[in-house]
Specification:
Blueprint: E1 7-9, E2 14-15, E3 18-19, H1 21-33, E4 38-41, H2 53-67, E5 72-76, H3 82-95, E6 99-103, H4 112-125, E7 129-132
Length: 133
Amino acid sequence: MSFDKTFTAIVTPFLKGKIDVESFDQLLMSQVSDGIEGFVINGTTGESPTLKWDEVEFLFKRAKEKIGSKALLVLGTGTNSTEATCHYSAQAKKLGADAVLVVVPYYNKPPQRGLVQHFEKVAAEAPPVILYN
């Protein structure tokens, strides 16, 4: 699988405190028709720090349903916890994510060997991992 494509870190639109599904669908479809070849769902642009996992899962499934194989789907699964990141990355694999986007553990600030261990553990659970620094 090749990731040398044009990706959008898609926003998560809200209306009255809930995900605005109609706007999300419109954003996806208009960008696919304009040539976007992949999406990052649940990146920081998509409000990852504030979404609950059931919302993340909903957005991913909705995107997959709407665009099918027209674009690659990357799911943001990174946290400052290796255990949580592994769990979310394994869930992303089950959902059919083409890759996961994983941030460097924030606040903890592990040394280089800790970063290597973090990403090795995540990679064992996940589809391809895109490091987000």
